[in-house]
């Protein structure tokens, strides 16, 4: 944790808010995710340039290698719906991520966005929980997903119970299958730790 806090502090001095997440349900145990939101690629590039010239950043990265057993390529999501820059997210917040890779056969991006928007709106009307929608613009391309925040697991349980009791929700969820590459649908939880 001290090293993760160090990353957050260094990023803050470079002008960005870095969020550190522990992988929960649906993640490989021990996973860590680092995320920050930016207004534009130019903004991200400016922050990146500051970090690339920071001795403290490179020192922290070297220290981190001791704990790093595997790594994934970076993914950058573009918000289609929702999303905020500089948002303070409380430690302990759980983000439920639902995403998939668009299939070649049913990969109508605009139709998938319309369906996902309808699903998110329906979910919000049933549970009161809103979600951001994003698509990948770097990393694995063709990924689309929605991301909802919860204060704790009890809120997730409550929302899931409301969805299960609503006859319209599951059929709407299943409509999305026509857009997804087989075997690519993922739901996971990440927990804010720093």
Number of strands: 7
Give the CATH class of the largest domain: Alpha Beta
Output the number of helix runs: 6
Number of domains: 2
For the report, how would you describe the main beta sheet?
7 strands, antiparallel
Strand content: 15-25%
Segments where pLDDT lies below 50 for 5+ residues?
none
Order of helices and strands: HEEHHEEHEEHHE
Topology-level CATH name of the largest domain: Alpha-Beta Plaits
How far is the first residue's CA from the last residue's CA?
8 Å
Reported CATH architecture of the largest domain: 2-Layer Sandwich
Q: Give the integer mean of the pLDDT values.
A: 94
The SS-based structural class is alpha+beta
User: What strand line-up does the widest sheet have?
Assistant: 2-1-7-4-6-5-3
Percent of residues in helices comes to 25-40%
Radius of gyration: 18 Å
